[in-house]
Amino acid sequence: MSAGIDYQTITAHQQETWATGNFHEIARQNTSMAIALCEAVDPHPCDRGLDVACGSGTAALVAARRYCEMTGIDYVPALIERARQRAAAEGFEIDFDLADAQALPFAEASFDFVLSVYGVQFAPDQEQAARELLRVCRPGGKIGLASPMPQGWSFDFFSALARYRPPPPGLSSPLRWGTEQGLEALLGEGCHAIASEQRTSVLYFRSVDHATEVFLTYFGPAIRASQGSATAAQEHLRDDLRAVFSRYNRATDGTAAMENQFLLTMAYRE
Ligand SMILES: C[S@@+](CC[C@H](N)C(=O)[O-])C[C@H]1O[C@@H](n2cnc3c(N)ncnc32)[C@H](O)[C@@H]1O
């Protein structure tokens, strides 16, 4: 408990939410962000890297293809299991461990670089999660983040979900990590420089309806928002998601190619 917020209970509820559905079915959409992030961080072969809130391991796999020594953590057992299967299928030795981003089970300065793609940003105690990123990254190392921004597709998508399942009172928004001010407040003290740039990734689906179906079937926070609502409200949520997806769809052939602005950040550890 801190500042009147019961982070432990909120973390437990969030863990159940992310364990609902199967984020791996969505994870393919994050591959281009993971590649962009890895190119920006530019780790060298044999560098030790950590992918925080790795889901089914997408960013860790990207870095492992560069012969980096990778570890990934997430707090959803089924996603860690999936990450292990993906690593095995590629013949990579990656340590995928169950852990909370707010309490990383590693000694200080264990990694040359730390990555997170739309992951650590969801930890409720943002200050503690930021301290953990800084603690496990060695002096002179890099922290690379791909973060949702308070505008564009991510803002509209998460706002639509929040209308049906509001976040616990008092919590800072995950979108704070997608602002320069938020990053400075969270990481500024442990870094000698933080550089961010806006990027666009594209989310591809067979159609807007297919995208809506995929998120309502596999994306834990969307399933929970839908489950907590009356039948009429569930239909409204479906309509709201369709509207968001249509707004950002640049395809004109009936398929979906939705543009998502995100903030790509490099934080240089002191
Ligand atoms: C949007 S998914 C992104 C997963 C992965 N980074 C990717 O790009 O495919 C968010 C992930 O963060 C994980 N997560 C959220 N809060 C976490 C926490 N406090 N500790 C560990 N994992 C967390 C969820 O389980 C989920 O896998």
The oligomeric state of the chains shown is: single chain
Using only C-alpha atoms, the radius of gyration works out to: 18 Å
Strand content: 15-25%
Main CATH class:
Alpha Beta
Bound molecules: S-adenosylmethionine
Average pLDDT value?
97
Question: How would you describe what is shown here?
Answer:
This protein is of the alpha/beta class and 270 residues long. The protein has one domain: 3-Layer(aba) Sandwich (Rossmann fold), CATH 3.40.50.150. Helices cover 43% and strands 23% of the residues. It is built from 11 helices and 7 strands. Strands 3-2-1-4-5-7-6 form a 7-stranded mixed sheet, with helices on both faces. Helix 6 (126-136) links the parallel strand 4 (111-117) and strand 5 (137-148). Helix 9 packs across helix 10. The longest helix is centred in the C-terminal third of the chain and has 17 residues, at 231-247. The chain is globular, with a radius of gyration of 18 Å. The two termini are 30 Å apart. Bound molecules: S-adenosylmethionine. Residues 11, 14, 18, 23, 27, 30, 53-55, 58, 74-76, 79, 100-102, 117-119, 122-123 line the site of S-adenosylmethionine. The site of S-adenosylmethionine has 22 residues, from helix 1.
